[in-house]
Amino acid sequence: MMRMIPVRETILSAAILLLLALIATRFSGFVAPSNLANVFNDTAPLIILALGQMVVILTRCIDLSVAANLALTGMAVAMLNVAVPGLPIPIIIAIAITLGAIMGAINGILVWKLEIPPIVVTLGTMTIFRGIIFLISDGKWVNAHEMSEAFTGFPRAAVLGLPVLSWVAVLCVIVFGIMMARTPLGRSIFAVGGNPHAAVYTGINVGKTQFLAFVISGALAGLTGYLWVARYAVAYVDIAGGFELEVVAACVIGGISIAGGIGTVGGAVLGALFLGVVKNALPVVNISPFWQLAITGSAILIAVAFNARSGNAKGRIILKSAQSSS
Questions:
Q1: DSSP strand E in the chain: where?
Q2: Residues facing 217 on adjacent strands
């Protein structure tokens, strides 16, 4: 199966390049380096959230509350900025990550200790988080003129030609690449998703590992909440509505197995980039944005079918090995 992972990434990379080539025939300016940098910046929030969702899915769980977590954290830090305009940005970021991690921990505790199915837990908390946004904001918006320049300027500040938002996504990719490949936590995540019963015998606490995966996903959602609100300079109840489905789609398209235990950081990033290119390209070539839903859905079905065929191939290989040994 490990040999199949690079194949999936290669196919997805080729699909992205083919898509860019087709777009370039209609509008050559889309593939200009400056525009591609803008596309990456637009996709950065999806990349960050996809990395957190990847960790959760690898442990045989799912987090449908990431967009609501993002929205609640974004509203909270926006209101905090209005109340205390001089609060340093590092403190605001730390608060956002902490709030997000707490919401992720709530999901993790319910899954770990009460053994409630993750999809039920996160559907419930998704609704609760959206409701809390309405309660704390009274349904009102926080607009650009109410936010401080430092608050809205940080994600947009250019460093070496790229906005800070893009660099945060790059840093997250690097950190998660190292974590998943080189740390005990990363190995535990793969072990729990691959075979939870065997993981127990090796001394891995399955519930605790799933809990940590939800905390990580929540922390990234909290971080993205600040970056999102600051970049677009607005916070409201329905911010990022439905975005959790796009996050899951990025993971599935990137080859993260919904059965757990199989996937890579590179796959999650490529899945997010594929969706980012589609989302940014359709208006440019005068195609209705509604086609984005059809393209995304088709890509998900193809990715799931590919994963299923890979799993069946592995099963046949194991069966042949067993027959030959007997």
A1: 158-159, 162-163
A2: none
